[in-house]
Amino acid sequence: MRLLIIEDEPKTAGYLSRGLSEQGYSVDHADNGVDGLRLAMNNDYDAIVLDIMLPGMDGLQLMQTLRTSRDTPVIMLTARDQVDDRLRGLGAGADDYLVKPFSFLELLARLQAIVRRARPHEATQIQIGDLFIDLVARRATRGSRRLNLTAKEFSLLAALARRRSQILSKTVITETVWDINFDTNTNVVEVAIRRLRSKLEYPGETKLLHTVRGMGYVLELREEEASEAS
């Protein structure tokens, strides 16, 4: 997921950015309402974490302007625990509301919940052969074996699985997984693919992750290889 944090308090913004990045999410940050609105209007985010008290433009104004043309899921943050404040935030178009201080795990769970509600028809679980991927729990297993993946390795596997049987180029992978336009000569994708393959495919197991020379990579179960493995 690609997330936007609009928060002017450096400690809170850093804490959230670091924690969400460690979970494998791509995170952008704005420390004022004007820049936050510009980013929210000009980019596609899966969700936004929005503080109410912001310089330049407060969170309620930002929320109301955003909702004129965007339906991106939003969680509002505030230090005020008054019912009227929460009602104003929800009335302005927020999808959820958290009062500071809050648990990072609760924020993470609520982010996942509002994204699921916004994309009700998107599968949260994917199965390819004996590979099972839970996109919400961020857990992958192969048969009875759990794959011990890093956050980026899981994001790479999820990107390939969401487009199973489609060839993904290095450019698409770097933009999807790292949200960065890498120099085409870099080997970061090859290194990540090699590490993922070493965990995904043990000796004797059917190959699922394939290299298509000159084009990219594809995750799929090929009948001829499944037959050879059996």
Topology-level CATH name of the largest domain: Rossmann fold
Count of separate DSSP helical elements? 9
Largest sheet: 5 strands, parallel
Give helix and strand order, one letter per element, not per position. EHEHEHEHEHEEEEHHHEEH
* Name of the CATH architecture of the largest domain: 3-Layer(aba) Sandwich
Helix content: 40-55%
Determine the mean pLDDT: 87
Structural class: alpha/beta
Cα distance spanning the termini: 37 Å
**Which strand-content bin applies to the residues?**
15-25%
- Principal-axis shape equals elongated
Poorly predicted spans: none
Protein name: Response regulator
InterPro entries: CheY-like_superfamily, CusR-like, OmpR/PhoB-type_DNA-bd, Sig_transdc_resp-reg_receiver, WalR-like, WH-like_DNA-bd_sf
Keywords: DNA-binding, Phosphoprotein, Transcription, Transcription regulation, Two-component regulatory system
GO cellular component, one term: protein-DNA complex
